[in-house]
Amino acid sequence: MKIAVCIKQVPTREWQPRLNDDKTWIREQDVSYEMNEPDAYALEEALRLREKHGGEVVVCSAGPARVQQVIREALARGADRAVHVEDDGLGAADAFAVADALAGAMAEEKFDLVLTGLQSDDQGHAATGVVIAERLGMPHSTIIMEVQVQDAGLRIKRELEGGWFQWIAMPLPAVLTIQSGINQLRYATLKGIMAAKKKEIRKAAVPAGLQRVQQVAALAFPTKSKQTQMIGGSAAEAAKELVRRLRDEARAL
Amino acid sequence: MILVIAEQREGRLNRATLETIAAAQQLAGGRAEGAAGGMPIKVAVLGATTGSVATDLAPAAVAEVLVGENAALEPYTPDAFVMAVQALIEQQQPQLVLLPHTYQTRDFAPQLAARMRRSLITDVTGVKGSGAGATFTRPMFQGKLSADVKPLGEAPHIITFQIGAFRADAMQKGTAAATVTRVDAAVDASKIRQKPEAPFQEAKAAVDLSQAERIVAVGRGIKTQENLAVAEKLAKALGAEVAASRPICDNGWLPMERQIGSSGQTVAPKLYVALGISGAIQHLVGMKGSRTIVAINKDADAPIFEVADYGIVGDLFEIAPALTSELEKA
């Protein structure tokens, strides 16, 4: 089975955002990056499917040269090769532009299965995988917690809200967006890191006429919906004051 | 015209639809029954059998409730819904199409927008301005920032609203019930590629967190499974249940049934203590209705402090034990 995994490079969880001068985007020079966590689960699922059914895992990512960091990481974890749609404008592009860029480079590969995380930890549109499916003419399903490959296609477990699930049968080729927690992640070994250096990264150009569907007019730190009372002091002092307020003000004890 | 797509299952309305109508009324700019200056609002109910959903929606201050029934819409599949909603949009020609941001619309709205080559803005929490010139506020970077976004390109623009961002009880009611009109929900059943089975729940949950009076919830800040003891001791001193954000349950440190958030349980206890939880929106939607929220986190900018009543910035491994011994004194 020929499996594509679409991964995105996003700011680390510890990153403290700063805005650019016109307050329409982040100051990118301050950012340290990592692999989008739901995409890491999609990669792990692809590696497990290859171990079970054979074939190839191809990592696909769109963005500036810096995204090679997460491409190398994925190759070190066990992906066979990569496709990098490289363009500086893709770093801040919306889900539709990213999906169009990826789908354009992926079409010729004729993948049997495309996996990606259910959403990104940066823009969080939760749309990229589904748009890729539509562009490649494949059926899709989202928020997947188990993948079984059967003779005629797939049987997948989709998460619904509030602890409900549903099994869905679907033909291949198909696109699935993977939920975090579907499996236990593996990490790169030294051997994997060495092997990754020799693996192929095919560079692909951005297709002509790529269009964004939205524009960020302003970016800001969110306004608080509540007046939070911050309690300071040493741990013991703060604990004492909090217990007093929970008892006397909030009557929550 | 603004078209709201209602969400229902087997004739039962998802109340998030009422929140979306409230958002539509704000966007319409004025009373929405076709009054001067206001864009008219129509609400569409789609399904195999929609039961009383249309009459449940008719009291809302909207111009019309549209009902499209087709056996191919049950059980839900993205392929069938995209066909039905696209046909409805082409027939009704709205400027805006609004939906709640549920697991179901996350599944089909991007496909609809991609097929129609229209703008989609998801997970919207607020609206600035009205009508075609409106901008939409949505979280970015895990809620660390908030973006005002403008849709680009031809109408209709498709917008999904975060659950709880607008209040269902803020929805204006009309002076008379809205007209209910039957419409054609065109679906070519031969083009549906997904074959769903019946929804099910995993093993019955042994704990019902929705009934807990107090909850101590842990997030990534707890770092290791062994450290859960810190939270368990505090929970015991408070008479609270222990719960967690998604990553903790993903790691298998606590069972999935103790997960709070959009994919887990929604709770509203008297007291919610968040230990080392940054407050990603998927978690906040599950607990922000709690009466009193305490957040303890080393990062003063963590989004959890936006919903907290009391906040302590610091090391949870110092503060939680101090809190436990303070409670044990009493």
Mean pLDDT reading of chain A: 95
Which two protein chains have the largest interface (Cβ within 8 Å of the partner's Cβ), and how many residues from each? A-B, 79 and 92 residues
Shape of chain B: elongated
Provide the number of structural domains of chain B.
2
Query: Largest beta sheet of chain A: what is the strand line-up?
Result: 9-8-7-10-6-1-4-5-11
Please identify the structural class of chain B as seen in this structure. alpha/beta
Task: Estimate the mean pLDDT confidence of chain B.
Answer: 93
Percent range for β-strand residues of chain A: 25-35%
CATH architecture of the largest domain in chain A: 3-Layer(aba) Sandwich
N-to-C SSE series of chain B?
A: EEEHEHEHEHEEEEEEEEEHEHEHEEH
Radius of gyration of chain B: 22 Å
Q: Write down the domain tally of chain A.
A: 2
Shape of chain A: globular
> Largest sheet of chain B, if any?
7 strands, parallel
Number of strands of chain B: 19
The total of beta strands of chain A comes to 13
Oligomer: heterodimer
Spell out the helices and strands of chain A N to C. EEEHEHEHEHEEEEHEEEH
By DSSP (H or I, 4+ residues per run), the number of helices of chain A equals 6
Known CATH architecture of the largest domain in chain B:
3-Layer(aba) Sandwich
